[in-house]
Fold this sequence. Notes:
Elements: H1 14-35, H2 39-62, H3 69-72, H4 76-83, H5 95-116, H6 134-168, H7 173-179, H8 194-213
The structure holds protoporphyrin IX containing FE (2 copies).
One protoporphyrin IX containing FE binds near residues 49, 126 and 144.
Amino acid sequence: MSAVPGPVKPLWDLPTRVCHWLLVCCLPAAWLAAELAWMEVHEWLGYTVLVLVVSRIAWGFVGSPHSRFSDFLVGPRAVLAYLRGEGAASAGHNPLGSWSVLLLLLLLLTQAVSGLFNSDDVFFTGPLYYALDAGMRDTMGLVHEVAFNLLLGLVALHVAAVIYHQRWRREPLVQAMLRGSADGREGRAAPVSSWRAVLVAAVVALALWAVLAAAPEPPPMMW
Ligand code: HEM
Ligand code: HEM
């Protein structure tokens, strides 16, 4: 009697996919809002990115097996082996891609956190602007600018790498990021419940709200 194959396990669980495509929408939207000086829209998009990224980082510890950092982050030796053409250990991110994923998440975090301390020097101040002295505020302004340029470069590289794997190596990465799995891109372990991700995101949003509620007030105006 031949064994009946079980249902295909997703490589990327629903929360990981939702988080990815929301980031893809929010990042250009936050950029556009800053360019148009719609600072309140920029601020809310920035908070959304912050909650998404912190939740994704937490998901890297408590999420589904293939979304965990322990599943895909590997040392330099494994990256070099991958570059020599020796296959990847994980069904998910390849050894080189895993480091770009981590860098992308850390840059997004830096971008959103530095925004909290930033100001356009005219109409808008980030909610934690008054928590720092003048020197540190300037530094945060610079960090916000530099991190964004680095992000643009890294996102361009990321999209180029995805296109390379998709077109030249015929790997259905985008289909897997959209549907969870695709031919040759299946998970090896069952995902955890998506409700866990809802709980993680709610805790992160609540923590952000608590930090913003405790933000220092602007000093009184001196006439
Ligand atoms: C604002 C732009 C983007 C950002 C910030 C971004 C960020 C990320 C991050 C953080 C991951 C890791 C996913 C995880 O483990 O949670 C990822 C993976 C991925 N992204 Fe993007 N991404 C962007 C744009 C795009 C676009 C435009 C595409 C489609 C062409 C795309 C396709 C993918 C795919 C297919 C993966 C999975 C790669 C793999 O299988 O190893 N991304 N992206
Ligand atoms: C990850 C999400 C974010 C992205 C991609 C982003 C991107 C940008 C960009 C491209 C600019 C214009 C360039 C510059 O002057 O630095 C800008 C300006 C600014 N952003 Fe953000 N930002 C984000 C989050 C935030 C957050 C959460 C806040 C505060 C709540 C914030 C506050 C500001 C302020 C006050 C400016 C004006 C700076 C100036 O005019 O010099 N940003 N942001």
